[in-house]
Specification:
This protein is an alpha+beta fold. It has two domains: 3-189 and 373-459, Zn peptidases (Aminopeptidase); 191-370, Alpha-Beta Plaits (2-Layer Sandwich). It is built from nine helices and 24 strands. The protein has helices spanning 3-29, 46-61, 124-140, 161-169, 269-279, 285-299, 346-359, 380-393, 442-459; strands at 65-68, 73-78, 82-91, 109-111, 114-116, 146-153, 175-178, 181-182, 186-189, 191-198, 207-212, 218-219, 222-227, 240-244, 249-254, 258-259, 319-328, 331-340, 363-370, 373-374, 400-402, 414-416, 419-420, 439-441. A hairpin with a 4-residue loop joins strand 1 (65-68) and strand 2 (73-78). Helix 1 packs across helix 9 (442-459) and helix 8 (380-393) runs antiparallel to helix 9 (442-459). The protein is elongated, with a radius of gyration of 23 Å.
Amino acid sequence: MTEQELLQKADAFIDANINQIVQDIKTIVDIPSVKSAPQPGAPFGTEIRRALTAALGIAERMGFHTVNCDDYLGYAELEGERSEYIGTIAHLDVVPAGNGWHTDPYDMTVVNGYLMGRGVIDNKGPLILTYYMAAFFRDLGAKLPYSLRMMAGCDEESGMEDVKYYIAHNPQPVFLFTPDSEFPLCNGEKGHLDGNFTSRRFENGVIAAFTGGFATNAVPDAATVLLRCDASRCPAAERITVTATDEGTRIDAVGVGGHASHAEGTVNAIGVLADYLLEHDLVTPEERDYLTVVSLLCRDHLGRSLGVDCDDGIFPPLSIIGGTMRMEDGVMKQSFDSRYPTNITGTQLAEKLAAVAHRYGVEVTDVSESVPFYIEADKPEIQACLNAYNDIRGLNGKPFTMGGGTYARHFQNAISFGTEIPAEPLPDFVGKIHTANEGIGIERLKMSLKVYILALYRLMQIDFTGDAS
C-alpha cells in the first residue's frame, strides 16, 4: 500500500468514526479525575481510578487486550510481529477546573465545533485518539512489525509516580510519544524544580487565612485573604474586592491564569494580593517579610526579581511561578514551580532561592527536581514524526524544546507530539490547557489522528532492534 492509499483510507476511517471518538472523549472528560487522597485500589484517588476503569473499558469495547498495572496506570495493546513495542502515553488525571467557565467543565459539550471540558486537550482527548490510531491499523488486517501499547497514565500532573511504577515493572518501549504537547514535536524539556516558601509560625498575626490557586503548576487567577482588621483600613484597588464579614475583612484578588510553562501574559492573583497588603501596610512586620518573598516570586515569571534568571540558548529561558498558597496553624506555604535550562542545576537554583528567602526569615522546603532531557532531532524516529506532521499540513515546522514537563522525560527514547498549536488562534470562547474553558476543535482532532496514523506507519518501518531480519 502506498502512503497516498493509506491516507485515503485514514480519511475515510476518521470520518466514519469521529462521532464515536467525540462520545468516547466525553465519557472520560465527564469524570472529575483530580488527584485526591489514596484509597485501597486507588493510589491517586477514587475519581482517577474511575477514569482509568472507563478508559480501559473503552479500549476493551474496541477489541483491545487491556492491562491494569496495579491501578497506577493501564494500557491497551495491539500485538505485532515482535514483542518489542512502540508506545504512546496520555494521562487521565487533570488539574482542578478553577474559575471562569462558561460550560460545566465535567459535562463535556460541543460548542461551534469545539469540545469544551477539563481534559479535552490535556490529555483525555489525545488518549482516545491513540486508541483509534491503533484501531485503524488493526482494521487493515495485517500485523504491525512491532507491538503497539497505548498507555493511560494517572499521575502526570502531580509527580508522575505512575510511570515510575510502570518502568520499574515493564520493559521500555523501543520508542514512545506522548500526545501531550504541541506540534510539530518537542525533543527536549527543561529541568523542573518545585517546592515551597514556608513561613515561620505567625503568633498574633493580622492574617487569619490566605488561600490561592488550585495547582502548583498553574498561575492562579484568584486568591483570598481574611484579615483581623476593620474594612475601613482597606482602600479600593484594581483587581481587589474588599468585603466586611463577621470573621474580619475578606479581600479577594483576581488575576489572569495560565500554565507554569507558558506564563507570558499571566497575572498572578496571589502576587496581586501580596502587593496590596504590602502597599497599604496591613500586616505585621513578620508577615511583611514573608509576603515580600511571595511578591518577588509572583512579580516576574523569568525569575529576575529573585535573581535566578538565566538562558542557555538551547532551551527557553528559566521560568518560575507561584502556584498555590495555603495557611495552616499560622504557617503559610507558597508553592513555586521553576523550569530551568542547562546552564544552572537544580541544586544551584535551590540554593539561590534559599539565599533570597533566608534574608527575610523564610525557609525553602519540600523541594523536588527532575533534570532536563534532550534527544537529537536527526534520529530516524524523530524525523518520522516531524515529517508526518509537516507532510499532512504542508509546513516546514522544526522540533522545539520547552519548559513543560511530560511523561517523555521518563523514557529512554521518547518525545512529546501534539496536539496543541499555539500559533493558530482559538475563538474567544475557547481556553487553553490549565485555564477555564479548555477546548479543542473537532477539525484539530481529525487532523491530529491523521498525523498519528502516518507517523506510526513510518515508525513501524524503522529498525529499532538492530536485527535486519
